[in-house]
């Protein structure tokens, strides 16, 4: 029987105004869940409900909120396999990756449960006698969190867990095509002892969400917007928030470079490129865009990379594969347009396009899904679309460089700045690269994707507005510093004016 799911606001199922079928991309005829989509009014109402519930939650001592986070972590861990299996079923992410994704929620809870007993403020010396200065972290209020479906549970947890820990309420709008996974995660969170209304999940399309968010910002019920998704939508959210004098947390696209130096361990670099390029079918924001390889080792690298891609196991994500299907038909449509252009402008190494019976990929194990060939394109030039645009699909470009400075320039050229990587055995190259690259994240001898959950995650340029998620850095997104001064001198001491001359 098909699952039926709807938004949950204040602990109660909310009304839907239309439905959407979330399908299994590995067997597109299979409906994973019938999702009731809410309208803008329900989104705005959810923000009002959240605001109401937030008052009490903010007064709950932070260590107690930390215990709720601990309980969420335990529940997720106990249900890890079923949640991962659902993620695989709904978005076609290979099961091992899906399990890793669920692990990332647990890691996030592990980190923040202790933060409930820290959430430190400071005592600060005053310039006047008998006066004490303090700082406190206050919750922002209500966070509206809008997330993509390529990481339908881990990435949302990067927002939800710290936001809740800091004493905020949340209205979460997950991607429709990953709604069943999101709903399952919501239920685990809700079962942890969170008071009703503190966490709400609203399924809605882009238009209704945007309208609902605009109303909520106008009504003053939302104080922070968190968004993970495309740079295009991120820009719109940024503009909307800017009009309301808010700065959102934006985690957007990437065109992530991998530089391969002449002194690199080539096999390691090939392994890294394979995982970064084709893990999650190239649909991570941290996926590899372009390999920038030194001209002296270009031929050797390309030969090994192309044959590794040819041997990669593609197919049913429930099995042991490097790559399953694309997430959803809408991404396949966009990718089709892109590879059409590629076919007209490039000679592709190996195959490109949809995997079919007549055009199989090695020991292909899939059937009836939106599967594409993992593709490598050599000879990409800096003015090329493939060099400049995020493809969000299984395609990797290769280009060459002569000097490290030139490689850094190429790495920065597309104007994104999320993740990057360099393969080298010389630490001087690694540090020089780190200094010059615009990316928020740098890997040395490791893939562009696969960040650990307690390091700052985020990008610059077209990849985001400099906000960072994960670890202690995200606390600055979900709390606002409050400064307090307490004068016990019994007179009016005036800052700057009553200070002794030096
Ligand atoms: C994303 O694709 O939005 O670092 C996030 C990684 C994952 C997160 C990716 N831990 O690749």
Automatic annotation (TrEMBL):
The subunit field of the Swiss-Prot or TrEMBL record says: Homotetramer.
Question: Does the record carry Oxidoreductase as a key word?
Answer: yes
Q: Where is the active site?
A: 251
- What are the protein's UniProt keywords? NAD, Oxidoreductase
Residue ranges occupied by any Aldehyde dehydrogenase domain in the UniProt entry: 15-483
Q: Name one GO molecular function term.
A: aldehyde dehydrogenase (NAD+) activity
- Pfam families of this UniProt entry? Aldedh
> Belongs to which family?
Belongs to the aldehyde dehydrogenase family.
Under InterPro entries, the record lists: Ald_DH/histidinol_DH, Ald_DH_C, Ald_DH_CS_GLU, Ald_DH_N, Aldehyde_DH_dom, ALDH7A1-like
Q: Which PANTHER family match?
A: ALPHA-AMINOADIPIC SEMIALDEHYDE DEHYDROGENASE
Q: Could you confirm whether the keyword 4Fe-4S appears in this record?
A: no
- Enzyme class name: oxidoreductase
Record-given protein name: aldehyde dehydrogenase (NAD(+))
Q: What is its EC number?
A: 1.2.1.3
